[in-house]
Amino acid sequence: MSADRVLVQPSPLTLERRARWSILGRDWKLGYVLVLPAVSILMAFIAVPFLTSILLSFQDIRVGGDAVFVGLRNYASLLFGANRARFFNSVWVSFLYTFATVVLKFILGMTLALVLHSAIRGRNFFRALLFLPWSIPAVVSAYCWKWIYDDMRGVLNIELSYFGLIKEPILWTADINLALWSVVAAAVWQGTPFWTMTFLAGLQSIPSELYDAAHIDGAGALQSFFYVTLPSMANVIVVTTLLSTIWTANSLQYIYILTAGGPANSTETFPMLALNLGLRAYDLGMGATVPLMFFPFFAVLIFILTKHMLQQD
Amino acid sequence: MERATTLGTGVRARNSLWAALTYKNRHWLALAYVIVVVASLWAIFPFYWMLLTSVRHESEMYSRDPALWPKSFTLQHYHAALFETSFPRFFANSFIVAASTTAVSVVVGAMAAYALTRLRFAGRPLIARMLVVSYLAPGSVLFIPLFALFVSLRLTNTLHGLALAHLTFTVPFSSWMLIGYFRTIPVELEEAALVDGATRWGALWRVVVPLSAPALVVVAVFSFTLSWNEFLYALVLVQRKEVMTAPVGLTFFQTADLFYWGAIMAASTLMALLPVLLYTLGQRWVISGWTAGAVKH
């Protein structure tokens, strides 16, 4: 990496300064001055809140009330007590929501990237169109879908009944068996372009010599996909999948706007549960505990991702 | 460096054989056209429907007419959104928060990125790691403690409080994107300036900053849209209407179960305008920024 190159050092140095150099590094003064603002912001608004969250999880604390230390009671309540059913429901819903959304985005993203990478005409035009959903604010896309899904006036039900496919309007976001999948569809719609574009960049970075070699060895289109394309894109796939898993699992807009966790908690993922318990029921301690219970899982993902993203160093 | 060149020329530089394979096989090519057309329709439809709803008469929405094109045209929903609600206020708040967040995060991010790519000091790898971790840190873990902290610091219901909360994702984002960019600037240019007697600080301002002006603009643009679009912190940290931002303001176009869809879609269109424009112009850069490190060679 460029920073490791040795620069020309103009001035002679005293022994004392030389000694400090070797411990703190050549440019320690300017280095620390330059990173100080960023580090303080991250400390104050990420590290401190994270520690606060752990502290809150051991307290019975209401909005506007006094805090009482209760040990592990919030954790026990979620795992064994009054909130048990609702908590495990949110584990299952979070898993279903995240898994379904990520798998669909993977399949669609890969398909569209391959199509955009093929010999079709107007690739740049289609590329721009397919990127559109990613560019609008998530709240706006959530409202667009809420309107499309509307029971009586929504275009989806109107078209379906016009073509005689349904007799009664389908309650896309109010049917207990359907609501989660309606939210997944909206999230997939908005999230797919990110996958398409990263996969496309990955495809374009594969050296064509690899395909030539595969061709000489007699590989067809499918074989070169499985033996050249996929292995060459391993890193892109891992990073995109992990990044999108973290974003998807932790996103709240689609669920908050389309269903608010209902009907009957059938779409209550853990961020929604945290919001409902923490701020709507004014139980901050419980609200802080819910995401913390999921945190070990994300810590593992973040650990792996960090390794991949710092690989260039 | 590799990444930038790949993405810069990528659109046309396809892998010859892969292209040849799809050329030769007409069935594959036909299938590709079908997929891309269907996918494009799917991608555009919600936009189209948003625009359409925002300009047709209220009465048309109740008619259950299956036609997918408008039969009336009106700007009454835009008028309603702009002159009969607090939406202009929400817009202004969004703008203030996004602009101040952007200004801080570009300066702070550029400083950190420069130090992490060019300078040698103890703890550099640790700080780089910390930056990536905070870039990935989920907001769902932070919103409740941030709310609790902000209540005790009297920062809830203030625009500067919300801007501070937005720094949690714009600062790591800006630093991370700029690290990727600074790596592509040849270090020899600075070395030349240093040999000519410039200080590190002088080299930063006279060589690196002018060279990275385009990257700084791109980072500023995307920090701005991240903050402009942000929903969770805005929802939790602000309850008073006077300081509310546009994403949360959208939820006010309803009374109980009645939604004013024309006005919601008009306001949505106005809100989406800026990000759509910016992302369409700069999609190549933002994607490479998000996944810096993933795409190589």
Could you characterize what this model shows?
The complex is a heterodimer of chains A (313) and B (297). Chain A has a domain at 86-279 and 294-309: MetI-like fold. Chain A is built from 14 helices and 2 strands. Chain A has helices at 15-24, 28-57, 73-79, 84-117, 123-135, 138-149, 155-162, 179-204, 208-216, 221-232, 234-250, 253-258, 270-280, 284-309; strands spanning 59-61, 67-69. In chain A, α4 (84-117) packs antiparallel against α11 (234-250). Chain B is mostly helical and 297 residues long. Chain B has 15 helices and 2 strands. Chain B has helices spanning 2-9, 16-24, 26-55, 58-62, 76-83, 87-118, 124-136, 139-152, 159-182, 187-195, 200-211, 213-229, 232-237, 246-249, 261-290; strands spanning 254-255, 258-259. Chain B has a two-stranded antiparallel sheet. In chain B, 51% of the residues are buried. Residues 1-13 and 293-297 of chain B have low confidence and may be disordered. Chains A and B meet through α2, α4, α5, α6 and α7 of A and α1, α2, α3, α6 and α7 of B.
Please give a handful of descriptors for the protein shown.
heterodimer; A: 313 residues; mainly alpha; MetI-like fold; two-stranded antiparallel sheet; 2 strands; flat; disordered N terminus; B: 297 residues; 2 domains; 74% helix; disordered C terminus
TL;DR?
The complex is a heterodimer of chains A (313) and B (297). With 313 residues, chain A is mainly alpha-helical.
Tally of DSSP helical segments of chain B: 15
Distance between the termini of chain B: 9 Å
Give the overall shape of chain B, derived from the CA principal axes: globular
- Helix share, percent of chain A: over 70%
- The CATH superfamily of the largest domain in chain B is MetI-like
Give the overall form of chain A: flat
Q: How much is the radius of gyration of chain B in Å?
A: 24 Å
- The fold-level CATH name of the largest domain in chain B is MetI-like fold
Chart the SSEs and their pairings.
The complex is a heterodimer of chains A (313) and B (297).
Chain A: H1 15-24, H2 28-57, E1 59-61, E2 67-69, H3 73-79, H4 84-117, H5 123-135, H6 138-149, H7 155-162, H8 179-204, H9 208-216, H10 221-232, H11 234-250, H12 253-258, H13 270-280, H14 284-309
Antiparallel strand pairs in A: 1-2
Helix pairs in contact in A: 2-14, 4-8, 4-11, 5-8, 6-8, 8-11, 9-10, 11-14, 13-14
Chain B: H1 2-9, H2 16-24, H3 26-55, H4 58-62, H5 76-83, H6 87-118, H7 124-136, H8 139-152, H9 159-182, H10 187-195, H11 200-211, H12 213-229, H13 232-237, H14 246-249, E1 254-255, E2 258-259, H15 261-290
Antiparallel strand pairs in B: 1-2
Helix pairs in contact in B: 3-15, 5-15, 6-9, 6-12, 7-9, 9-12, 10-11, 12-15
